[in-house]
Amino acid sequence: MEDKTNDATPKRPEGERTIDAPLVNIDLNGYIRQIKSEEAWLNNKRNSITLFKSDNMRIVMIGLHMNTELPEHTADGVISVQALEGHIIFKANNEEQKLTPGNMVTLHEKIPHSVVAVEDSVFLLTMAMKK
């Protein structure tokens, strides 16, 4: 397996970071600090960073400011949403799940869902794709 990295960009000039390798160590607290320090967080309603990306799985950290909504959409794979900070409401199948740190939900592919931040929040989105 070849290691995969993200290159530096104008929004993230600190250089490349590994997003796929046989073993990837992910510092969640470090990425929370990074998300909250970037211009995208300071000047917009949300910010996100891909922590891991392979053919079978993606892990994305998403930060939403209070009252920000990710409008209804679907995913091509099974997902999990885990609250790390704050309070979000996950909506799917005419149900609302309130998520605070330590809570998570799972959802099968192709089911419409949305997320609303009740307060400034950070959560992990993990998606497993079928081959």
Explain this structure.
By secondary structure, this protein is mainly beta. 11% of the residues lie in helices and 48% in strands. It has helices at residues 28-37, 39-43, and strands at residues 4-6, 17-20, 46-53, 57-64, 69-73, 78-85, 88-92, 95-99, 104-107, 113-117, 121-128. The strands form three sheets. It has a five-stranded antiparallel β-sheet, covered by helices on one side. A four-stranded antiparallel β-sheet has the order 5-10-7-8, with no helix packed on it. Strands 1-2 form a two-stranded antiparallel sheet. The relative contact order is 0.21.
Features:
mainly beta, 11 strands, single chain, 4-stranded antiparallel beta sheet, 131 residues, 2 helices
